[in-house]
Amino acid sequence: MSSWTVTPEPFDSPVAAALWRAYYTEVSDRWYLLHEGRRTDPDELRREIAAQTGEDLAPPGGRLLVARHDGEPAGSAGVRLLKADATTAELKRVFLLPGMRGKGGAALLVAAAEEAARELGAGRMVLDTRGDLVEARTLYTRLGYTETAPHNDEPYAEHWFSKRLGSSGASGRISVQPD
Question: What angle do CA 41, 43, 46 make, to 5 degrees?
Fold first, then answer.
């Protein structure tokens, strides 16, 4: 029997860095393959990863969560309060390693991120994504997010979503053992 756990992780831990690199490599390669027929240039990849440290996902205004499957790091999700509206949190970096997809971890990560947002005082979650990330858009819709007008001017954002967060349903650590 396998199990998932989702717990907070320092944004600058080795586990967080490895998951961020895997995430960024995948989404960057997908964009470049679609638009330019090539993978991301390794130097550009290093520069962009270094520029996006994830510091905005640190307390007190943010959280980085890591999902583990049978104790092994499998994915991540981040939450940060918006500076312009501290009652709204933004969902960032939702990612599962390719071999971990289809096992229920993505919904657990988003649920844990929603709980973290509530703990930060948010009553609403927003996010943006690209058109080619069809799986992400499908997941967010399935989890109750609705497409909205843009809430930011991110250069690669093509779809924006929002969800009202209900009352708290869990706390701290989420553990699930599938049937």
Answer: 110
DSSP-derived pairing of the beta strands 124-129 and 88-96: parallel
Contact 57, 79 (CB under 8 A): yes
Q: Give the chain's mean pLDDT.
A: 90
Starting at the edge strand found earlier in the chain, the sheet holding 146-148 runs: 146-148, 159-164, 124-129, 88-96, 72-81, 62-69, 4-8, 174-176
Dihedral of alpha carbons 117, 54, 20, 151, sign: positive
Query: How many structural domains are present in the chain?
Result: 1
- Give the whole-angstrom CA distance, residue 37 versus residue 70: 37
Domain that holds residue 59: 4-176
Give the pLDDT score at 1: 56
Q: Which CATH number characterizes residue 47's domain?
A: 3.40.630.30
CB atoms within 10 A of CB 177: 8
On the question of a cis peptide bond just before residue 60, with omega within 30 degrees of 0, the verdict is yes
Residue 174 has pLDDT above 50, yes or no: no
